[in-house]
Design brief:
Number of domains: 1
Strand content: 15-25%
Number of helices: 6
Protein name: Nucleoside triphosphate pyrophosphatase
GO cellular component, one term: cytoplasm
Function: Nucleoside triphosphate pyrophosphatase. May have a dual role in cell division arrest and in preventing the incorporation of modified nucleotides into cellular nucleic acids.
Structural class: alpha/beta
Organism: Micromonospora sediminicola
CATH topology: Maf protein
Number of strands: 7
CATH architecture: Alpha-Beta Complex
Cofactor: a divalent metal cation
Order of helices and strands: EHEHEEHEEHEHH
Largest sheet: 7 strands, mixed
Amino acid sequence: MPLRLVLASQSPARRKLLQAAGIEPDVLVSGVDESLVVSERAEDLCLELARLKAQAVLGRLRSTAEERTLVLGCDSVLAFDGEILGKPADAADATRRWRRMRGRSGVLHTGHCLIDVVHESRAEAVASTTVHFADISDEEIAAYVATGEPLAVAGAFTIDGLGGAFLTGIEGDPGTVVGLSLPLLRRLLAELDLRIVDLWTKVAPGGQEIEHLG
C-alpha cells in the first residue's frame, strides 16, 4: 500500500530537511495556538504541542483503502537558564535573549508525534540537543535581529541559516535543532512496523533516479 506523509507544520526548514532525505511530504498547517499550552518541563511542552498539531491535522483527513497516511507533528523549544523559550515576542525580546545566551549553552528539545491514520496507532518521543552559543558582540546581535530570522524560530536562532555562524558547536543530532530529527523519525516509524525507506520518493535530491524500496 502506498505511503503518504502529511507534515503538520508550516516550517519550511522541516519540509526542506525531509525533502533532502528523499521524502516529499504533503503539508497541512495545524492552526494550534501554542500560547494556550503551559508546562514546567520543556520536554513535556514540546511533545504536547507536537501531539496537538498532529491530532488537529488528523481531524481534517480521511483514510482510504488506496493509501496508508501518516501524520507527523513537531514542535521545538529551547531550555535555557531554567526557562522555556519558544519564538521571541518581538525584536526587543530576541535581542535580550541573545545578550543572555551568548557565550553560554542551552538544550533544544523537539517533540515528534507520528500517527498512522489507517491503523489508528501512534508513536511519539522527544529529541534533545545541546547547543553552544558564540560570545557575539552587540553589533552582531543587532544585525542578526534586524534580518528577522530569529523572530520566526524557537530560541531565536537557527543552525541552517544566518544563525549558524553564531554557534560554536552542538552535542546531538543537528536535525533536532532544525526542528525534525531523522534518526528519531526512523525509530518512530519502526514502532509502527514501517521503514523510513518506504517513504523515499523515486527521485533523490539532485534529480538522481532511485528505486522505491517500499
